[in-house]
Amino acid sequence: MTIKMAMELYFCEICRFAYKDRETAEKCEDWCRKHKSCSLEITKSAVGEIKNEK
Ligand SMILES: [Zn+2]
């Protein structure tokens, strides 16, 4: 399966989940900052995740 990342995605800087809309990405970032963990409610709408690159 080929995944195309042509569409614009927004990332949470903290947990690095990707979202299709900026609003959700910002919500995630706020949550991550405050709680130092992710909200399942938010991350379930994530479309992907950036893997840490060495
Ligand atoms: Zn996050």
Distance between the termini: 25 Å
Radius of gyration: 11 Å
Major beta sheet, specifics? 3 strands, antiparallel
Extract low-pLDDT stretches: none
Taken from the alpha-carbon principal axes, the silhouette is: globular
Return the domain count.
1
Derived structural class? alpha+beta
Query: DSSP helix count?
Result: 2
Strand coverage percent: 5-15%
Helix content: 25-40%
SSE series: EEHHE
Commentary on this structure:
The chain has one domain (10-49). Helices cover 33% and strands 13% of the residues. The protein has two helices and three strands. The chain has helices at residues 22-35, 40-43; strands at residues 10-11, 17-19, 48-49. It starts with 9 loop residues before the first strand and ends in a 5-residue tail after the last strand. The mean pLDDT is 87. Bound molecules: zinc ion (ZN). Zinc ion binds next to α1. Residues 12, 14-15, 17, 28-29, 32, 38 line the site of zinc ion.
